[in-house]
Design a protein that fits this description.
By secondary structure, the protein is of the alpha+beta class. About 25% of the residues lie in helices and about 15% in strands. Bound molecules: zinc ion (ZN). Zinc ion (ZN) binds near residues 65, 67, 90, 94 and 99.
Length: about 120
């Protein structure tokens, strides 16, 4: 018997993320590279996503719907978007039960979806 129930993605806590970030930048420095914040964040996002672990959701940008979604299925998303949090670009409080980031569309009940803040 197989389960078709989707499982929630494994998402790091802020503390775990900060620890991983510190270790990554320290190891890079030890090897003669200074990783900038954006490069370190990008490296962590992609490296962790490759093994099914994901970074915490960033704070939502203001002025649009605050629903967010984590593309976490490696069968569905390529490496450029896997593990990269998406935020809905529609107006706050928009109608309908789907959200749209420009690259991904999702309903609130998807695993990895965070509903809009009320
Ligand atoms: Zn939305």
């Amino acid at each position: 018997m197989t389960s078709t129930q989707p499982t929630a993605p494994r998402i790091l806590t802020e503390e775990e993320y900060e620890l991983a970030y510190e270790r990554l930048t320290r190891a890079a420095y030890r090897n003669g590279s200074r990783l900038g914040e954006a490069a370190a964040h990008d490296a962590l996002t992609e490296t962790l996503a490759a093994v099914g672990v994901f970074i915490p959701a960033p704070d939502p940008e203001p002025d649009t719907c605050t629903a967010r979604y984590l593309p976490h299925d490696a069968d569905e998303f390529g490496p450029d978007i896997l593990g990269v949090w998406q935020q809905c670009e529609d107006d706050p409080g928009h109608e309908g039960d789907r959200h749209e980031s420009g690259e991904v569309s999702w309903p609130d009940e998807y695993p990895g979806a965070l509903p809009a803040a009320q």
